[in-house]
């Protein structure tokens, strides 16, 4: 049996960037070939794309974990690694993307609409790109950045021009079946409709879509019945139509009380797209009332009795119809087409969103240093944390390069200003260091072997020069004696 899923939580992970390559060019008759390590490839991104052929989020219900391909590692001879291909995920038209805190990230409407759910990590630089005046032949390369990982909520809001609302078994599905080619399930028990049904209606030269929303009951906006799960499908409807069952035999129900109960639930519901720039707020949408089942004599009398009261109290157009005898359907269809056209024409044209670029203001360092309470310090900032992820800590020269970058950024000076002492713990990202202020202080690096840094050398072994000096001193002392 097919299922309609309109809300899922997905876990997306973009591809990691490829590592850079540390290579030295070696070829016969070409001494001192120099570094020729290529850069790593960029990781693939996860992109959501609207596809008109997809109508539900069911696939994500069974496969919520999505991962893009990672970039390849760079190679020698200045060969850059291949970039990971972007993973395009097809979603239905009308999908809304929310983050972990419920904030709106994207509203995907229209075929081909795209949203980058997770950005791929950048590839690490090879040693050919790290050559500088101080480092003629770097013996290290940068690691690739990790791909972005996010937990996103996808909500499907049916894209329809007319939304049919009302109590269960009011005849909404039957109305959709007679004014369009849709064939929804119709039965005489409440909550027959468990998923919205879309139908395309033709009215002369005009064509519009209508959505049959599952029945609403008092308390639907608070989670009772099926209302909370399906109220979201009326957010994109330009016109809301009350379908009222005039032949109901339930005690305490009449057309006026049914309309008031549904309007109370609409007022209590807080839509995600509140203040939508295309359709306006939900409370401002035009309404119409359909008094249904007038093929029953008692229902016709009730409809004729309350019609004038609804017009006088609400000011909405009222239509008396019967889905069995097809009475009143043609005037209803043409009136709804006019209401949809007029309302959409009155709305302002949607303005395409432009990308917003927020440069760092002058004087901002892009990092912060805070005491952690145990005599150590925590450095926070996008650049220091990214640099730590790019560093291979098994290579002393790479660690020294990291120290130089942090020193130029101003981390050393800020630690000294806050009273940091040699040997205290400094945490950046997921790494904790024993801080030595002399380690990264020199910008001009003393040349040493590839993959090493003289500032990080810690050895108790006495060198040959020191032994020669000590031997000379002992001889001088013996001659004097």
Q: Which CATH first-tier class of the largest domain would you pick?
A: Alpha Beta
Proportion in helices: 10-25%
Element-level helix/strand string: EEHEEEEEEEHEEHEHEHEHEEHHHEEH
* CATH architecture label of the largest domain: 3-Layer(aba) Sandwich
Strand content: 15-25%
**Which topology of the largest domain does CATH recognise?**
Rossmann fold
Work out the helix count. 10
Give the tally of β-strands. 18
**Low-confidence parts, pLDDT < 50 over ≥5 residues?**
220-228, 273-278, 439-443
Q: Structural class, please?
A: alpha/beta
Strand order of the largest sheet: 10-11-9-12-13-14
CATH superfamily of the largest domain: P-loop containing nucleotide triphosphate hydrolases
Oligomer: single chain
The total number of structural domains is 3
Q: Outline, from the CA principal axes?
A: elongated
Compute the average pLDDT. 79
Which helices and strands occur, and which strands form pairs?
Elements: E1 7-13, E2 46-50, H1 58-62, E3 65-67, E4 87-91, E5 95-98, E6 104-108, E7 114-118, E8 149-156, E9 162-165, H2 172-179, E10 197-203, E11 206-212, H3 227-230, E12 239-245, H4 255-268, E13 287-292, H5 297-314, E14 318-320, H6 329-346, E15 368-371, E16 377-380, H7 382-389, H8 396-409, H9 411-417, E17 425-428, E18 431-434, H10 464-480
